[in-house]
Queue: 4 jobs
Job 1
Amino acid sequence: MRRHRTTARGVLFLAAILGLAAGTAGAAAPKVPDHIVFPVVGAVSYIDDFGAPRPGGAHQGNDLMAAKRSPAVAAEAGTVKYWTTSRTAGCMLYLYGQSGTVYYYIHLNNDLTAKNDNRGKCVRGVAYTVRNGARVAAGQQIAYVGDSGDANGGAAHLHFELHPGGGRAVSPYPYLQKAYKLLFTAKAGSPFALTLTGTVALATLDRLVVNVATSQAWPSATTLTKLNRPIALAVPPTALVQTITPTLRTVASVTLATKGQKVVVWTQPAPATLKAERGDEGSLTSALIQLN
């Protein structure tokens, strides 16, 4: 009888283990969002240097070279946590994304001037723009690019890491290649305007879709090139539509635009929002449209 009970317990235990294993195998693997927000706003250069040899081991991220104090923004919605005690990382921030992905923002700013003075600390206003533990939206500015830690004195850049499910690092490069780049960043509610240059994708009486190549933001003077993304703008009755063929003249309707035609659009001044920074549908309104 004792042997039977022991065997039964063994069978139940084995079944529980097998069930647990099956459940684990069936669970969805952590997945990075298909399109994150590019973590730096402004002129940026980078290569796929993930895995490159470094003094401390293989490189665990990509270095995004940018001007000191360039805005660093949230790759997706989530919660931020400061990390301020690493000599190599310097001023660092974790972004715990709502997808389960954890993003590392390393070598943030620690200077109080344009020079490499190292007089600042890893605090809000110097390295960070949000409080420790804050919940943030995708595209919200969270920090400033710098050269703290073992990057001190070198070219300013953001060392950006991507950890699906909070696990081991994977190359951010393919995600950066298809990430959404913000057109600008500004304090919510502050006035802005954009100049968008590209080609016509679609034109109706009250809507214009532009395949944007270059964006200029005012008053920040942020210029982005090689955007190569469609942006839909509202076209109100007050919008001025002009053609340059070869002289400048005003026309009645944007519906005269043809697909592939070169176009420059000036937007109406408006209060800054995250939707406008991303160029979301309905967030930008045309003031002047010039068709070439």
Note: The chain is about 10% helix and 35% strand.
Job 2
Amino acid sequence: MLTATKAEAVYLETRARILTGVLPPGLNVNQESLAADLGVSITPLREALRRLEMEGLIRLEAHRTVVIAPLTGRELDELYVIRIELDSLAAGLAASHASEADVAAIGQLARQKPAREPVAQLERNRAFHRAIYASCGNGALAAYLDQLWDRTDRYRLILVKQELVGGMASRQDHIEIADAVADRDADSAARLTRDHIARSRKLIATIMSSRPNAEASQ
């Protein structure tokens, strides 16, 4: 019987390889070859691939071929137009519903020092936003946003890599959002979050369009 621990480990490793570009967008991979490279049997890999397909990171095709989903400007726009609305809603609700302990945690996460490694910084960003989702008082909204985050990780990583070189502008955004939540200012928390997400989308699109192999126009 497959243990949950092994299946989870295969999922996390495969997902990390996709996020970091070890398995780059558009790559076709044979499932058996990938399983051998990971040092596992095909069974835990298939379970991991089903999860990754639900997140939109891969496509499963005939003859056991795995296609790493390409990055496109169209998908970026589709995902971020939803995030702009739902993240701002969650932030406004958090300002009204967060406990004092939640407020303290959000403030600490906003002010933490940037990580040196992109994927680690991506996780720190996620922890901040998740703290807001968890304190918004709406479980369905938090669940939708968590799923949406999975779909946008690769796009967000593009911006994180850029910011680690040029400065973490998003950190100041987080601090301002956290302060608005602490002040119980729902309107400001929502507005600052909307601006933050919109600015991130614009910067990611700019970075993608500057790359020779970018698919931002598709």
Note: The chain has a mean pLDDT of 90.
Job 3
Amino acid sequence: MAPLADTPRMPVHLERRLTRDMGRALNDFRLLEEGDRLLVAMSGGKDSYAMCVLLRDLQKRAPIRFEITALHIDQGHPGYDGAPLEAWLRASGVPHRVLHEDTYSIVTDKIPEGKTYCSLCSRLRRGILYQAATDLGCNKIALGHHRDDALETLLLNLFFGGKLATMPPRLVSDDGRHVVIRPLIYCAEEHLAAFAAERAFPILPCNLCGSQSEAQRKQMKALLGQLEAKHPTLRQTMLAAMGNVNPSHLFDKKLFPAHEGTSSAAETDVIAPSSLLKMALGGP
């Protein structure tokens, strides 16, 4: 495996923290196993660069063997220039592929102007990643989502989706052929941003949705920032809450199956739902 290109080293304590946080996620959710072949999704943003570097560093000292292939998708955005990312991958000795798929035309055709493109763009990109993983013989796809992405998604689903859900650290595809993993899910965005600045990664801007200032995700990010200004441990507390779920204290009816096989209400002290409804409505 070729060594990474010489780049400025970030402060040791911050590098160790990112490595530690990634290691916790890998261990907690069994994200890496012997013989895994990872397709590392490289968007050209700070998070995917950091993930690639940290995983490559891990390869040198991990007690298991795994392979990495970086994949970047040219989605046909206006003004797109992926040359800096490709040059970085070559200089770093990272095995990689670049795919050219014009998802931009599809998204702009299907989504009205002024609306956020993120959801459809993400679904199209995920389909391309799955197919690429199959073609390249990779059994896992590594995405660069971090702690703050997960918290924002939780709030988006809560406020606008009517469900309690977020980005899982490990997700098996519907057909069972691939496993999506998020090694950075415990890492704070601010630490990844510092990492990117110290390493001087050649960041590629996302011009597709950058002008959509009303995107709900941006609102959630702003809300978390405002709350954390008053409560400095807010994000870490929310992260802990996502790993400390108490289903019996929620409202999902699937957790409360109907009583079966009861002989009478008198014997079980159970009142039939229809009777409860009549009582609530003031009926006999």
Note: Residues 1-10, 261-268 have pLDDT under 50 and may be disordered.
Job 4
Amino acid sequence: MNEGLSIPMAEIELRASRSSGPGGQHANVTASRVEAVFDVRVSAVLDESQRERLLRRAGPVLTAVAQEARGQARNRELALQRLAEKLAAALVVPRRRRPSKPSRAARKRRLERKRRVGERKRARRRPTGDEE
């Protein structure tokens, strides 16, 4: 997945069931839908920081389902691939934000824009008696 992490198949539960949708007689008896389930809490390969990050971002159990292909073997591959993608996305450590300040030119542009808008609004006002 990432950081050299690989989840052994013993920690992933694969469940097969009947796929939904049309398909004729064969589809009514074939368990081609595959669900891959990974329990984060009981995994032995995750360190504590990875476990905490997964629990916070993805919850205690990650599940991926595939039923697009007609065969169970291909759906198993798809489900495992999707599970790996979910795990990798949840394990990404976000980069720390470095606070920045607006540049001098940006501050100048902002103040100039504010001044122009204020002048425009002042020009729209009804003239008073002392401006004759």
Note: The mean pLDDT is 89.
